[in-house]
Amino acid sequence: MIEPLRALKMSALVGAALITTAEPVRAQDQAKERPNILVIMPDDVGLWNISAYNRGSRGYRTPSIDRLAEEGALFSDMYAQPSCTPGRASFITGMYPIRSGLTTVGMVGAKQGMRAEVPTLAEVLKQQGYATGQFGKNHLGDRNEHLPTVHGFDEFYGFLYHLNVLQEPLDNDYPKSDAFRAKFEPRGIIHSFATDTYDASVPDDRFGEVGKQRVEDTGLPDEQRFETLDAELNGKAFDFMERAVAADEPFFVWLNPSRMHVFTFTPDVYKERAREHTSYDDPHGAGMIQHDDDIGAVLAKLDKLGVGDDTIVVYTTDNGPEHSTHPHGGITRIRRPTEPSAATGGKRGARQRWRGTEGHHRPDREAAAACQLKSRERRKPCAS
Question: Any idea which fold 4-23+31-372 has?
Fold first, then answer.
């Protein structure tokens, strides 16, 4: 049970006033007491990697992501944590990472991760009758006690580390000994469901008791599966949304694509599309073009389900781009880099859409942070 004071701090009223200047007026013909909520949080996408911000100066464009800005609000001051785990934790808990303890995670099987006493937005929304699903990157601990399905989510399909941890077993120089793999090999793509009964079994000593959930490890991806992993995640999210709509339940979906982490496997068709805009191979641009197509598929699915006007869509990222080695990483033309820096370049833009409301078609320059997304009051501090 969530403490009442904590629940108030994480108000379940996540309406269109998430981080806007004033609560917009809901159109009468679209009135709905509990709108669906879709939060899209890709990996390491910088302010300057979205054409709504760079105005096409990177060559490629991101029309699907730009559509969210055109139909909703474009935010210019959205502050990130300097790396993945604290960035994602601050959103789902509404707390500064130093408060939740989620400043980082350790090696495979480490005890660091989401704690039972830390409330989550999913738990609050579940109490309000929402179907809750998380798809894609989690990075909040890999033991069974850390999985999303024991922290308020009905269903989880995704991975528990940053992308390169999953890719390492594909490397030719990855240790082949069974003893090493038994201790250090990461978990694969996990599919889990919350249950009412406690499972005390321990299939793997590294990850502890299963708990009140059903957990399936679908295996580590190969290179071909990595190329279309985000489309696979979309498919699971679509199935979840379809079931919620059919049951007439509002849904909260936290969709966490693998793009645009560095050193990804990208289909040849997107590499060719990126070459149309540059005179050299552009792995990052190719990944962003594919990512934008995947976001376009998500928006199309909402419309196909007939819930496009009754769904709050927020697009932001866990942190800004990892610069890495050009052209694999992102860029920050203004200010300074972000991951793993806490400098001003840690700002990454956010886009928010709720088509059934009025008053959203303007840029908002007010500073905000991911842990403030649940506040009805503008710039209400994160829990500390």
Answer: Alkaline Phosphatase, subunit A (3.40.720)
For residues 48 and 55, what is the distance between their CA atoms, to the nearest angstrom? 9
Contact 347, 335 (CB under 8 A): yes
Give the CA-trace dihedral at 60, 63, 66, 72, to 10 degrees.
Answer: 180
Q: Give one DSSP letter per residue of 269-338, joined into a string.
A: HHHHHHHTT-SS--HHHHHHHHHHHHHHHHHHHHHHTT-GGGEEEEE--SS-----STTTS---SSS---
Given a contact cutoff of 8 angstroms between Cβ atoms, the answer to whether 221 and 186 are in contact is: no
**Pairwise CA distance, residues 326 & 324, whole Å:** 7
For residue 56, what are the CA distances in angstroms to 14, 60, 315? 32, 6, 19
DSSP conformational letter for 372: G
Q: Where are the domains of the chain?
A: 4-23+31-372
Report how far residue 166's alpha carbon sits from residue 169's, in angstroms, rounded to the nearest whole number.
7
| pTM given for the model | 0.84
Which tens digit of pLDDT belongs to each residue from 220-252?
A: 999 999 999 999 999 999 999 999 999 999 999
